[in-house]
């Protein structure tokens, strides 16, 4: 049984408001042999400068400390890669630090940068993340990823991370999905949606015009998960510039958009799912104490929390993040999400962890059409669109960059610049990709607030990054 | 002639014998799309790591002897005294006191069940298990956690009663020395080297 003390449940407080001023990213691909990692990072930082009408040198002159997210040293065979990137970006002798929390590395990098600014240590911090997963064959890549599991108790079992993850999916599939064909179809719809949105994104690695049937016929990886249910292995970089209010205003003098308020909160859970102990469900502001009393009756076997079906780390990241930013109901208070869709089924699990739907009812977020840019049931805007970027399934999972890419994507909507960033013909051409004839502007109209969830492995680390238009803060925002 | 790297401990220090790495020449990577211009190089490497099990060593040694060890917090001051852990934890996660090893082989034979499972068609490099790999997470009555392992016989189902089997002939001294079969499986069905 896990118990929390009141001290552990203290709502985190930032010492001063923190802003995301700009961001940028490189092209994402399965392999990018024509560029070194530092070139991709330069691409991302240059884009961030251009977004606010500055030269890279002008933007760099504001940066005071640097936070670098890069997970897998062994993929690149380079320790202290952060020092290489830092030098190549011309940011010596500023202080810098590397951050590694698996798939949540990008979100954790933002977490560190926000804390540095909130504390007053820096007025302007660079959060830059990258990953390069193309320098080993795929089966060796799977081996290297499996090293993120426990080396004595899990990794020798096939050296395949999907296997350690998918046992949780199996449990969710049987208990909450009731192994229904209709649920399997719902999962496939997520893949169709994310590959489809990726078609509108020039940065995205896996644009595909596919059907539910295509997903259901793709090769089995670990039943019920098939190849098209899984996220990508990627190369690429993304960055964000994090500032205090005064510096944010100064940097934004020539910017077409305003800086956004940013909060990041984090949660954690055991590296081995095997070590999970039972506990009461920590409730989000939109949940009640008696809400889950009959969970085990409605879903036999579903009363063990978090068991193998919930991500406690995601729940805690939302628990802290909502209270910091004043969110009382994510579906009402937020306008869009970018979720960590490592697998279609974990996307559904996360809907419940972050309170978009109650535990056991995650599939309704897809089936209701709420998660779409345009609700396929009504033809009207989706209530809370998610993963317009294409997510990890359609856009990329360049691990250290992922959480930053998601956050940048949310920002482009609040800035009303989604179409400009994603529709520019010049960018499509530069990336060697063809803009589809039926390209669609996926700007979420009127977006004021959004959230990105960055998630590691089987749920060892999760962050929630919440962005808001500073003129549309929630009542109880810090 | 080269031999695999071997290690033992004497006087608190590692003693090494044999070859721990093998040299392979690198080769250039050229770009067929750009007149075979140089793009990079391969970096081959073959190394042997030296790894201690520390306080978990009794668990891994016991597998080869046909025993499954769990661990239990016996600290009278601990709020969660008496909690049993499988996977074996050296320290109690609450009080951080040193746990006691407990032999839970008989308990596992009587009340182990599949909590969840996954049949995995793929593997990473260096895998030595036969595919498909049948991952099982095994729950035990009275144990607070749920062990990950693999099924050697039959097809898994949630709730299925299992019994442990152990690689007692030529053990590898890894977690692969422990596997599971459905209750009622005959000795003749066990993989080579394994026994109940």
CATH architectural category of chain B: Beta Barrel
Per the CATH scheme, the topology name of chain A is Peroxisomal Thiolase, Chain A, domain 1
At the fourth level of CATH, the homologous superfamily of chain A is Thiolase/Chalcone synthase
Query: What do the pLDDT scores of chain B average to?
Result: 94
Basic shape of chain A: globular
The first-level CATH class of chain B is given as Mainly Beta
Beginning-to-end CA distance, first to last residue of chain B = 39 Å
User: What is the oligomer described by this structure?
Assistant: heterodimer
Q: Could you please say which CATH topology of chain B applies here?
A: OB fold (Dihydrolipoamide Acetyltransferase, E2P)
Strand order of the largest sheet of chain A: 3-2-4-7-1-8-11-10-9
Structural class of chain A: alpha/beta
Helix fraction of chain B? under 10%
Note poorly predicted spans of chain B: none
Mean pLDDT of chain A: 96
* Class by alpha and beta content of chain B: mainly beta
Radius of gyration of chain B: 22 Å
User: What fraction strand of chain B?
Assistant: 25-35%
User: How many distinct domains of chain A?
Assistant: 1
């Amino acid at each position: 049984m896990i118990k929390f003390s009141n001290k552990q449940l203290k709502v985190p407080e930032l010492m001063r408001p923190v802003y995301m001023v700009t961001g940028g990213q490189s092209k994402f691909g399965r392999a990018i042999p024509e560029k070194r990692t530092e070139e991709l990072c330069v691409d991302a930082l240059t884009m961030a400068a251009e977004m606010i009408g500055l030269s890279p040198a002008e933007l760099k002159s504001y940066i005071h400390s640097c936070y670098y997210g890069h997970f897998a040293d062994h993929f690149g065979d380079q320790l202290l890669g952060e020092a290489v990137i830092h030098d190549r970006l011309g940011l010596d002798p500023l202080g810098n630090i590397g951050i590694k929390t698996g798939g949540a590395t990008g979100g954790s990098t933002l977490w560190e940068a926000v804390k540095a600014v909130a504390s007053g240590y820096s007025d302007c911090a660079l959060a830059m993340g990258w990953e390069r997963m193309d320098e080993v064959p795929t089966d060796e890549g799977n081996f290297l990823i499996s090293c993120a599991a426990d080396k004595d108790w899990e990794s020798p079992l096939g050296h395949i991370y999907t296997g350690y993850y998918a046992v949780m999916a199996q449990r969710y599939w049987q208990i909450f999905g009731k192994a229904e064909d209709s649920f399997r179809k719902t999962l496939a719809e997520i893949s169709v949606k994310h590959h489809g949105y990726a078609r509108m994104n020039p940065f995205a690695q896996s644009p595909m015009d596919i059907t539910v049937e295509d997903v259901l016929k793709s090769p089995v990886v670990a039943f019920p998960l098939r190849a098209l249910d899984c996220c990508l292995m990627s190369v690429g970089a993304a960055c964000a510039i994090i500032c205090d209010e005064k510096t944010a205003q100064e940097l934004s003098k020539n910017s077409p958009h305003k800086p956004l308020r940013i909060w990041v909160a984090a949660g954690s859970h055991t590296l081995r799912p095997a070590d999970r102990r039972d506990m009461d469900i920590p409730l989000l502001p939109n949940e009640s104490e008696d809400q889950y009393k009959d969970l085990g009756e409605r879903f036999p076997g579903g009363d063990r929390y978090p068991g193998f079906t919930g991500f406690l780390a995601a729940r805690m990241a939302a628990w802290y993040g909502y209270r910091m930013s004043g969110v009382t109901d994510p579906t009402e208070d937020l306008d869009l999400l970018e979720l960590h869709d490592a697998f279609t089924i974990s996307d559904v699990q996360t809907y419940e962890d972050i309170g978009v739907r109650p535990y056991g009812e995650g599939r309704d977020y897809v089936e209701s059409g709420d998660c779409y840019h345009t609700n396929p049931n009504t033809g009207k805007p989706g209530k809370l669109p998610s993963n317009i970027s294409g997510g990890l399934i359609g856009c990329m999972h360049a691990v250290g960059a992922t959480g930053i890419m998601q956050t940048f994507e949310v920002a482009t909507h609040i800035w009303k610049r989604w179409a400009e960033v994603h529709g520019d013909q010049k960018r499509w051409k530069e990336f060697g990709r063809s803009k589809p004839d039926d390209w669609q502007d996926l700007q979420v109209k009127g977006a004021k607030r959004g959230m990105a969830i960055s998630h590691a492995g089987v749920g060892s680390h999760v962050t929630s990054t919440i962005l808001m238009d500073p003129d549309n803060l929630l009542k109880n925002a810090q | 002639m080269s031999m695999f790297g071997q290690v033992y401990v004497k006087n608190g220090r590692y003693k090494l014998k044999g070859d721990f790495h093998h040299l392979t020449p690198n080769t250039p990577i050229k770009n067929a799309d750009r007149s075979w211009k140089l793009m990079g190089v391969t970096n081959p490497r073959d190394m042997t790591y030296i790894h201690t099990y520390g306080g978990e060593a009794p668990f891994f040694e016991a597998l080869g002897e046909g025993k499954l060890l769990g661990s239990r917090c016996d600290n009278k001051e601990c709020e969660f005294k008496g909690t049993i852990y499988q996977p074996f934890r050296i320290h109690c996660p609450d009080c951080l006191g040193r746990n006691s090893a407990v032999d839970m082989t008989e308990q596992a034979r009587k009340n182990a069940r599949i909590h969840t499972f996954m049949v995995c068609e793929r593997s990473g490099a260096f895998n030595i298990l036969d595919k498909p790999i049948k991952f099982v997470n095994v729950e035990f009555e009275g144990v607070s956690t749920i062990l990950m392992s693999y099924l050697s016989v039959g097809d898994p189902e949630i709730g299925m009663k299992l019994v442990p089997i152990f690689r007692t002939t030529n053990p590898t001294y890894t977690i692969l020395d422990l596997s599971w079969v459905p209750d009622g499986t005959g000795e003749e069905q066990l993989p080579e080297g394994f026994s109940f």
